[in-house]
Design brief:
Elements (H helix, E strand, L loop, with lengths): L14 E2 L1 H13 L27 E2 L2 H11 L1 H10 L3 E6 L5 H5 L5 E4 L7 H4 L6 H7 L11 H8 L8 E7 L3 H12 L5 E5 L11 E3 L5 E3 H22 L5 H27 L7 H13 L4 H21 L9 E6 L6 H8 L2 E7 L15 H10 L7 H14 L4 E6 L6 H16 L3 E5 L8 H19 L2
Parallel strand pairs: 3-4, 3-5, 5-6, 9-10, 9-11, 11-12
Antiparallel strand pairs: 1-2, 7-8
Length: about 475
């Protein structure tokens, strides 16, 4: 059943601690809150090892409670799906493409083992995934996604998929190395090739892509053929044929989620006072990738958030101050606490690029399904030149009125070595905005003062620029 919160008596929202949420949950239940099966007090997740929750601040709405419970019960959903006979597709690295195909079948579900990169943060390094990765030769010189390797080996976080799919080619070097190491341990990988997106030559047919990029027809055709191979592999596992009608229906369902996120982001980023904190917005955007393994429930979670935000906007209430500096944030942060820190320093989220901007774009519904998905896949900002990604960031920052930009470097990530500089130079030269480049490890407590100082300096610079 849907979580319902009365919008008739919306009060100014607050950010509350985990301990506060347990009391808040009891009050909501007493006032008639009806929750889905995965509902309950947030504090119970600490017993599962999610210790970082004790150090975060949360939006106090019933909609946000549902969002967090949905996120933190994904492992339960995957095990329930496996027990009910549903085939699990592990999609790696493509960020938003393979799950659309997988959820088009009637008895398959998809998830991203990549999400294990947050395990060291959420569990505050209390489990063995990083130690296992170290022992397998994938040490801290690699991106935190190396935790995925340990999660496969110890099998404490998600079921081993019935089919494991991974893109190669124009992809993160770290991830490719980790996935190859995973296959060497006896986890078969269905590899597919993602070509590097380049500008069409004068003698090449150009194809328009979601998000404003373009690519040569030959590249789109190559990706389309690769997605055809993936579809056949999923059909084999699922034991059913995936017709164009089924794929088209899957695209329409995925677009329901994407349109809800588009509405949510627009309302949050353009509001005079922020109706939803940065942390909850980050979690909500992540749902676009694979629907947190339940596409229909994912849409309901987002519908609740949109209703809550709309009600707050109608009544003119929100978080923080109307004078908070509007910050565009680049890259997901390895430590969730950094999103709280942004607001502590006088900033508010006003635009994002969390590495998967293409997964937020509506998939063309008027095209043949695999053609539409191929165009969407190759629109991934991460498979083309960093200058393309920088151009999209600049356009979005301008659209949402950003006053400053934070580039969060991911420790050990090969793609962060040079692209941060490209993005920073583009933002400064095209928009004249102040930029800070910070590295945020999975647990940033020891660097909290340094990170705070960098963000506070950015905020102060942006405030100075307001002065006539």
């Amino acid at each position: 059943m849907d979580t319902q919160a009365s919008n008739a008596t919306i009060t100014a929202p607050r950010q509350i601690s985990l301990a506060d949420w347990d009391a808040r949950h009891a009050a909501l239940r007493a006032s008639g809150l009806v929750e889905p099966w995965y509902g309950g007090p947030l504090g119970r997740h600490v017993a599962d090892g999610d210790f970082r929750l004790r150090h975060l601040r949360f939006d106090d709405s019933a909609a946000s409670l549902r969002l967090w419970n949905f996120l933190l019960t994904e492992e339960d959903r995957l095990h329930k799906a496996r027990a009910s006979g549903i085939k699990l597709i592990g999609a790696m690295k493509d960020l938003g493409t393979v799950p659309v195909i997988a959820f088009s079948a009637s008895r398959t579900a998809a998830f991203y083992p990549d999400g294990a990169w947050w395990i060291p943060c959420v569990m505050e390094c209390s489990e063995s995934s990083l130690e296992i990765a170290d022992g397998l030769g994938i040490d801290e010189s690699f991106c935190p996604v190396r935790a995925m390797l340990g999660a496969f080996v110890n099998r404490e976080h998600f079921p081993v998929p019935d089919l494991l799919v991974c893109s190669a080619g124009a992809t993160c070097d770290d991830f490719s190395a980790i996935a190859q190491r995973l296959e060497s341990l006896g986890f078969p990988v269905f590899w597919w090739e993602m070509p590097y997106r380049r500008t069409p030559g004068q003698d090449e047919q150009a194809v328009s892509l979601p998000g404003g990029f373009s690519a040569p027809r030959s590249l789109v055709d190559a990706v389309k053929a690769e997605l055809g191979r993936i579809t056949c592999a999923i059909e084999h596992v699922a034991g059913e044929h995936l017709s164009d009608d089924m794929l088209a229906a899957g695209i329409r369902s995925a677009n329901v989620v994407r349109r809800l996120l588009c509405d949510l982001r627009h309302e949050v980023f353009t509001a005079a006072i922020s109706p939803l904190p940065a942390l909850e917005l980050l979690i909500a955007e992540m749902l676009a990738l694979h629907f947190c393994s339940d596409r229909e429930e994912c849409a309901k979670v987002l519908e609740d958030l949109v209703r809550e935000v709309t009600a707050r906007l109608r009544q003119g209430v929100g978080h923080g101050s109307p004078s908070a500096v509007r910050v565009f944030w680049v890259n997901p942060t390895a430590d969730l606490r950094a999103m709280n820190l942004l607001e502590d320093c006088g900033g508010r989220l006003c635009g994002t690029d969390f590495l998967f901007a293409h997964a937020l774009d509506v998939i063309p519904e008027e095209l043949p399904p695999l053609e539409a998905l191929a165009r969407m896949a190759i629109a991934d900002p991460m498979v083309g030149p960093a200058s393309d990604r920088a151009a999209r960031i600049c356009a979005d920052a301008l659209r949402y009125g950003a006053e400053a930009v934070v580039i969060a470097r991911i420790p050990g990530a090969s793609h962060c070595a040079t692209e941060g500089g490209v993005i920073a130079r583009a933002v400064r030269s095209r928009l004249g905005l102040p930029v800070t480049d910070i590295e945020v490890p999975p647990l940033s407590d020891s660097l909290a003062v340094t990170i705070r100082t960098r963000i506070e300096a950015l905020v102060e610079t942006a405030l100075e620029k307001r002065t006539p």
